[in-house]
Amino acid sequence: MKILGVIPSRYASKRFPGKAMVDIGGKTMIQRVYEQASKCNSYSELIVATDDERIFNNIKSLGGNAMMTSSDHMNGTERCNEVLETISSKYDYVVNIQGDEPFVHPETLENLNSILDGNVEIGTLLKKVEDHSILGNPNEIKVVINKRNEALYFSRSKIPYSRNDTEMSGSQYFKHIGIYAYRSDILTKISQLEASPLELSESLEQLRWLENGYKINVTFTDHQSIGIDSPEDLKEATKYL
What we know:
Helix content is 28%, strand content 23%. By secondary structure, the chain is α/β, with parallel strands linked by helices.
């Protein structure tokens, strides 16, 4: 499979403007994401897709690959699709690597790429929940899956619900790691979909795809992911570093 890695990154983040360029131990956040993703050997090409010259110039100054894209995109999926439509090379899959996870582990990315067999429409990653305190945190996305490792639903709420209020209740809890792999033809299609009721309710784009009948296959990682959505998260990331 020929796989294109794309790191969507914009400067005007709603919750934390300019976070792509914040300093984390002497490197910008987007630099750290790019360096970590570059360690994944299964990408034929890796591109930072941005709408801001500061981010573009930062990656270019490192000898990296960056592309200017539209400022009108509503999400990373649309930005990935613009990259796919712009470049001349053809790819079987496009992987959307979150630009706000500076410590993303290369093995995590390889785990996702390993399930891309041409039949998978959309792929993503899960991690077993070990700290149950996160189950009530709406910023930690929970997932339920079927026996074929396909996502049934994503939610900000604790799922599955424990009717008898017993922890686990025979079920395993999983948290979502927000990295997506799209088969190229599927990426083109889902980029044209309108926002769906479930998506608007939970503010989770992947529910749009499920509501429209697309399958999301999952695989697993043991590596912890640290996303930066606020200045408080930045403090935790610095502590982690």
